[in-house]
Amino acid sequence: MNKVLLPLLWLGTLAPMHALALDESMAQRVHSLAAEASQRAAPGLRVHVSVGRLDPRVKLAPCASVQPYLPAGIRLWGAARIGLRCTDAGVRWNVFLPVQVDVFGPGLVAAAALPAGATLTAADLKPAEVKFSAAPSPIVADSALAVGRTLARPLAAGDALRSTDLRARQWFAAGDTVRIVAGGAGWRIHGEGQALNPGLEGQVVRVRTESGRVVSGLAAGERTVEIPL
Fold this sequence. Notes:
The protein has one helix at residues 24-41; strands at 4-7, 46-51, 60-63, 66-69, 78-87, 92-110, 125-131, 170-172, 177-184, 187-195, 199-200, 204-209, 214-221, 224-227. The chain is mainly β.
């Protein structure tokens, strides 16, 4: 079996050390492991994996049996890493190999340059394949979720539209009468109250109920507050 040479972290016995030589077979095993795990995490999306290399200046110990593995809690998204461990009886060590995992799928992009503060129309956006992994914010793929919304930042032509590019909607103003909704498994109750602060989409708002009690909930829609239970 050809030996794969990797950085020495611990040696049970003294051994000669050499520069990195990640052979094609091991590189393919790493690529397959990363690609399969990424595809399971992002079904229906296109995944492209590039296997990097370790610093060639690092001196290495020979190992006849190297096992690639997914580190616990790792997210194979953008810049990531795959673990490599030597399982020789006499030599054991563990290192990490950098990989780049690019994930592509359908989304909306700016049809032309758009300034911050622009109110989006259907003509401002067009469908395209976009790189999901270029940023952590979710891609917007449904024009119904974007048209009529205001841009929080400028977009260049071809830029992908992400949820953080849209300003939060204001569902109601402070002082407005709002509908209060609370519920659980198999039941829901409704009431009315007065908003004590503006209701921005998904943010906490305080409401004074008809009995005078002040409760907190989430601005969930037009003049609607949901009370989590």
